[in-house]
Design goal:
The chain is α/β, with parallel strands linked by helices. The protein has a single domain, classed as Rossmann fold. The strands form 2 sheets. Strands 1, 2, 5, 6, 7, 8, 9 and 10 form an 8-stranded mixed sheet that branches. The chain is globular, with a radius of gyration of 24 Å. The N and C termini lie far apart (87 Å). This is Histidine acid phosphatase. Keywords: Membrane, Signal, Transmembrane, Transmembrane helix. Pfam families: His_Phos_2. It comes from Talaromyces stipitatus (strain ATCC 10500 / CBS 375.48 / QM 6759 / NRRL 1006). Belongs to the histidine acid phosphatase family.
Length: 491
């Protein structure tokens, strides 16, 4: 009879378990670009976040709480505060825009929910102070007058302030592909008049206004009943899919052009911001910023999709991301942290995308960046590939945009005297070789002094011509009456 050595089996199992734990991934930090939730239509004017939109962004924030914050998650960011937020670990920005700011506030309520008794404090006299709203956690959002993906401008390319990008986007309207679609879709758009006659005139109904037309009808399909608005009975899923496809072609071509990269200036700036955010985690050896969240809208995302060659991974990356969509760049390592923060050679980046309300699952899906075969990129490869298009200095932005004036004159002066420096604060920091790639960001603070360029860089589209409903990016998103919004859609 064979004798079973149970002690050897137990030791072998324990060894295997140790090996599995040792080889498991640790999330060191993350950068999230988050789109706002459901809103009233932009073209009506004074758009606002709806109750549905509030629910959407809160749900997404709650998902990231379970992924990155709670202690029992296998994706918890190493060393991040769990129950009570530690503001020094977060970096949160959003343009000064009602829809996006309110989306950010709702999202953060999900990320760090009310802490209850954990938030109470005892004073020196023994009095216990219970914070209001069951320990509601106050998390400030850094604001700019406009920003990446701002909803507050009718033509977001004009918000970038980038002259060459404006010219590039305008060139799309003289392209053969645009002219062909303008002609071939004329009858389709004019057939929509009964549904949108209170918003558009017949002359406005064309591919030129593909996004605005689809946006109005998309809101109607979510919020309006056919009983109250009988004309909407012809608004079936097939028609909506066709209009969405045309709107996506329109917006993607305004956001990105492979032969004229300056058109994607917003995505290039976002790429530089992602590099800086993740680099801050590395250079601080994980003791500083651990999670960066930037709130915005779809246009900047489309720019980045094109620059990062994501349509090569999935053709859906040429489509308009749904409400509450997220782009995520995770900084991960397989190295043990017992001996301190890992070296850059042991740090990797993985990209995820979640297509908001159109996704069947709340979970993230990973896609390869830069048309690479692997979902996991070494930090050095991620930096060098991003550097091919990322805007990493004021002088670089001014040169690509062909701008002059006070900001760019100051940038030229700074660039001539600036030294590239991102020396690691410890052995775990960024290596000098990699630091040279993004040192300009560290030296200069961030693109155009952080907020200066964020204020210049928005989403994508053309220069505003006139304040009429024919514009593709209508006016600023302010609080509007839902009842008025529904009435103005037409009948």
């Amino acid at each position: 009879m064979q004798v079973i050595n149970f002690q050897s089996i137990v030791l072998a199992v324990l060894a295997a378990m140790h090996l599995q734990v040792a080889s498991s991934e640790t999330v060191l930090g993350a950068y999230i670009y988050q789109r706002h939730g459901d809103r009233t239509p932009k073209i009506i004017g004074s758009p606002s976040l709806t109750a549905l939109g509030y629910e959407e962004v809160f749900a997404r924030g709650s998902y990231y709480n379970k992924r990155y914050i709670v202690s029992n998650s296998s994706y918890q960011i190493d060393g991040i505060a769990t129950d009570l937020v530690k503001l020094s670990q977060l970096n949160i920005t959003a343009p000064w825009d009602n829809v996006i700011q309110n989306s950010g506030a709702g999202w953060l309520q999900g990320l760090y929910p009310p802490a209850g008794q954990a938030a109470s404090q005892t004073l020196s006299n023994g009095t216990s102070v219970e914070p209001p709203l069951n320990g509601f956690q106050l998390i400030p959002i850094g604001t700019t007058s406009s920003g990446s993906g701002s909803e507050s401008a009718p033509w977001l390319q004009s918000v970038t302030g980038c002259k060459n990008a404006q010219v590039s986007s305008n060139n799309y309207f003289s392209s053969d592909s645009y002219q062909a679609l303008l002609l071939s879709t004329k009858s389709l758009y004019q057939s929509l008049l009964p549904m949108v006659k209170a918003t558009f005139s017949l002359s406005d109904l064309s591919f030129k206004n593909a996004f605005s037309i689809w946006d109005v009808l998309n809101v109607a399909s979510i919020h309006n009943s056919t009983k109250e608005y009988p004309a909407l009975q012809q608004l079936n899923s097939s028609l909506m899919n066709e209009l969405f496809g045309l709107a996506s072609i329109h917006e993607y071509n305004l956001a990105y052009n492979a032969s004229d990269p300056v058109r994607a200036i917003a995505g290039a700036v976002l790429a530089g911001q992602v590099l800086q955010g993740l680099n801050n985690t590395i250079t601080s050896s994980g003791r500083g910023n651990k999670l960066t969240i930037q709130f915005g809208s779809y246009a900047t995302a489309l720019s980045y999709f094109g620059l990062a060659q994501l349509p090569a991974a999935n053709s859906n990356f040429t489509g308009i991301p749904s409400y509450a969509s997220s782009m995520i760049w995770e900084l991960v390592t397989n190295s043990s942290l017992e001996n301190g923060f890992p070296s850059t050679s042991d740090i990797y980046v993985r990209f995820y995308f979640h297509n908001g309300t159109s996704a069947a699952s709340p979970d993230l899906e990973s896609y390869p960046l830069f048309n690479q075969p692997s979902l996991l990129l070494s930090w050095s490869d991620f930096v060098s590939s991003s550097q091919a298009f990322a805007i990493t200095s004021e002088a670089q932005w001014c040169q690509q945009c062909g701008n002059s004036g006070s900001i760019c004159s100051a940038a030229d002066s700074t660039a001539s005297n600036a030294s590239v420096s991102a020396t690691p604060s410890s052995a775990g920091g960024i290596s000098k070789a990699v630091a040279g790639v993004i040192g300009a960001m560290v030296t200069l603070g961030v693109i155009l002094g952080v907020e200066a360029l964020i204020m210049l860089v928005g989403g994508i589209s053309l220069t505003r011509k006139r304040a009429t409903p024919v514009e593709n990016f209508p006016a600023a998103e302010k609080v509007a009456s839902p009842a008025k919004q529904l009435k103005d859609l037409g009948s």
